[in-house]
Amino acid sequence: MNIFKRIFNYKIDNSNKTEPFLEGESGDVATGAETEKEKQRQKWRFPLSPLRTFLTLVSICIFAFSLSYYSAWLLGYQFTVYLLYFGFFFMVIMIVTDIKVLIEYFKFRKK
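^ thats the sequence. predicted structure below, dont judge the formating
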């Protein structure tokens, strides 16, 4: 259940005035004791989690494969139709939530 919360409830905490996504593994907000190299790495951190990015790419691949001739030949027509529906809805859900997270991230970065 925790993995689903991490995928679909990936939000930016706007309550503090620190830079976004500077939290460590334990959830503690980063202090000013980091080196300049560490600050630079955190500054350019990609706003989406690696798992979310991977699942978005997987959903696009499932949808693209279900559109191909080989999927019908390998899996059969009926299963390919189900795969097409699943891939399409999974892809739409993942892309819409990714866009929502990116919009929220860039809104916060502007402040």
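Helices lie at 2-8, 36-43, 50-67, 69-75, 77-110.
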